[in-house]
Write a structure and sequence with these properties.
Blueprint: E1 3-7, E2 10-12, E3 18-25, E4 33-39, E5 46-51, E6 58-60, E7 68-73, E8 78-83, E9 92-103, E10 108-114, E11 118-122
Parallel strand pairs: 2-11
Antiparallel strand pairs: 1-3, 3-8, 4-5, 4-9, 5-6, 7-8, 9-10, 9-11
Length: about 120
């Protein structure tokens, strides 16, 4: 059974930093894409960052480029989202997602697992 457990969220002042962690069980990073998504109150779900299977290639959304980075520690089976220069607009519930076997015909993954989310609040 795949489980993803996020941690590291909290209240931080504008300009501050946080590092979110996502500890995975039941999956191997060599075969899975690992992502961070977020959802702010009243807004649509937003993709934030991805580390592609194997861990050598990463990408972040333009909205957080230069401020956020994604990384993984295979030995700890953990994915991280480093966040700096936080802004009130970054306030959201952050989800860790694991995806495997993308099907281009349907645009979906055969396997798609979500953590429970961790809240990040940026406020003075």
């Amino acid at each position: 059974e795949v489980q993803l457990v996020e941690s590291g969220g909290g209240l931080v002042q504008p300009g501050g930093s946080l590092r979110l962690s996502c500890t995975a069980s039941g999956l191997n990073f060599r075969s899975w894409h690992m992502k961070w998504l977020r959802q702010a109150p009243g807004k649509a779900l937003e993709w934030v960052a991805i580390v592609y299977l194997g861990g050598d290639i990463t990408s972040v959304a333009d909205s957080v480029k230069g401020r956020f980075d994604i990384s993984q520690d295979k030995a700890k089976n953990t994915v991280y989202l480093g966040m700096s220069g936080l802004e009130p607009e970054d306030t959201a519930l952050y989800y860790c997602v694991g995806d495997k076997n993308y099907c281009p015909l349907t645009g979906t993954y055969d396997f798609d697992y979500w953590g429970q989310g961790t809240q990040v609040t940026v406020s003075p």
